[in-house]
Amino acid sequence: MDTTTLAPSTGSTATTTATTSASSQKALSSDFTTFLKMLTVQMQNQDPLDPVDSADYAVQLATFSGVEQQVKTNDLLGSISGQLTLSGLSDMAGWVGRQVRAAMPAWFDGAPVTVSPNPLALADGAELVVRDAQGKEVDRQAIPVSSDPIEWAGVGADGSPMASGLYSFEVVSTSGGEEVSTDPAEVYGTVTEVRAVDGKAVLVTQGGSMVAADSVTALRMGS
């Protein structure tokens, strides 16, 4: 998996891009080099009394030319793809330090976490379920059947604050007392880094959560 990183320092970006480009070029030219070697060996070892038919030789030369052009085309497409990826990362550099909203774990350090619930419209009840980084349920509370944002204070049943760390959020929709749906809730997280992973822009938020840029549904200034 090729990864290019765009953070406050871009020194590693050039190194990673250069390494990736060199590796791709070597792989793309392998077929071309192999074909050239085979053609050369054939010419050196053919029987002078029974040489390769001129028509067959012309076909081989045409094939040789086609392979060469394909390699050059692949190199060009790879170069364009890399440039587009870096251009996209540069455009997103301004996201670093801002808060994005997506269905992802949120970093809790004592300050309330803004949660955007998404209960089913036909539900008559909803609960917010909070889990820690190990997936253990640490909180469950009834919430309005609404998509209005709520603030999760991060306190236990005894009123003491929970430990700092990553927490994930789910909304359980109920109807007639029966659970009908469980869906991840969106939260805000501060962007600390922008990466290119397999040609796609990925955001890294405080605490190490990673989310695809195209999964973000809102953007706001960092607090």
TrEMBL record:
InterPro entries: FlgD (IPR005648), FlgD/Vpr_Ig-like (IPR025965). The keyword Cytoplasm does not apply. Residues 108-176 form the FlgD/Vpr Ig-like domain. It comes from the Bacteria. Keywords: Bacterial flagellum biogenesis, Cell projection, Cilium, Flagellum. One of its GO terms (biological process) is bacterial-type flagellum organization. Residues 1-23 are annotated as: Disordered. Coiled coil: none annotated. Belongs to the FlgD family. Required for flagellar hook formation. May act as a scaffolding protein. This is Basal-body rod modification protein FlgD. It comes from Rubellimicrobium mesophilum DSM 19309.
